[in-house]
Amino acid sequence: MLHAGPGGGWLEVPLRFRPTWLPRGYGEGQRGVVVDGTQAPVVSRGWQTGDMSQGISLMVGWHSSLDPDRPNGPLTTIDVNGVPGQLVQVGDQTLGTFLTWQPPGQPQLLISVHTDDGADAQQNLAVRVARSVRPDPGVTSVGPRFGWLPLDIAATPWRLAHGFAGTDWVQDVRVSGTGGRQLIISMGTSAEMRLANTFTSEPVRIRDWSGWQVPAMRQLFLALPDGVEVSAQLDDGPGGEQVMPNLIRIIEEFEFGPWPDMSWIGGR
Fold it and tell me: pLDDT tens per residue, the chain (268 residues)?
């Protein structure tokens, strides 16, 4: 189990559902939330084995910002505890199986399976996991939030992801704008987050923290207390935007919130 911090935050998100059956050897390794204003219309959870290429996830809810990620392909209708579900399998070299259904009065549920198994085995696994899904009274929390963003992405829904890398915890915030523009802020204790382009870096100080910026890559890195590192990157914006001043301002006004409680890592 990883214990990053006290947990909590400004937004408490109900988990709502969870599978009550998973194959042996799977433990929870990822949680994600889509944040739109002061609401969290989507929460997701992922379970993996020691082989990170083997994964099962459950997404509760849907948001239009996820539409580009919606799996498309021939559909098979599957009964999920009396509710018709739609199963689709996509991918050529790497197969993924997705099963979507919506119990009456509940949000959409989506099970996804990525394993080394063939199509039939993946389908059987997705169906069994889906049929085991039951209500979950637990909650997860959103700690970070933005104080300022450039106008073109200021009203855009954003995604928060919790996970781990080896024995370290990591938390990512991502905002995707029009034209593929993206802001990524990564926080955690993993040394892998350090900038690879340190030979082109320049010192920077933001609030009480020291770090480096790499203007050519639109990146910056900070060392925070408690051994936490922060890396951030912002793609070019509309007409003549000065990216680095905007990125620095984003971090200056960014509320990191309490570090997340990661004690759920590895659980069933």
Answer: 677 888 999 999 999 999 999 999 999 999 999 999 999 999 999 999 877 778 999 999 999 999 888 888 899 999 999 999 999 999 877 899 999 999 999 999 999 999 999 999 999 999 999 999 999 999 999 999 999 999 999 999 999 999 987 778 999 999 998 778 999 999 998 755 665 556 678 999 999 999 999 988 899 999 998 889 999 999 988 877 889 999 999 999 999 999 999 999 988 8
Same domain assignment for residues 196 and 114: no
Residue whose C-alpha is closest to residue 187's, from 244, 226, 243: 226
The answer on 164 and 100 residing in a single domain is no
Is 165 found in the same domain as 52?
no
DSSP 8-state class, residue 260 = P
Q: Which residue among 105, 140, 175 closes a domain? A: 140
- pTM given for the model: 0.92
Do 34 and 135 belong to one domain? yes
CA torsion sign for 207, 169, 175, 42 is: negative
Q: List 163's β-bridge partners, or say none.
A: 170
Helix (H, G, I), strand (E, B) or coil at 187: strand
Q: Exposed (0-12), middle (13-18) or buried (19+): which is 117, by Cβ within 10 Å?
A: middle
Domain that holds residue 84: 11-64+72-140
Longest dimension (CA), the chain: 60
Of the CA atoms within 13 Å of residue 111, those in its CB half-sphere come to 29
In the chain, how many domains are there?
Answer: 2
Q: Which of 87, 119, 140 is the last residue of a domain?
A: 140
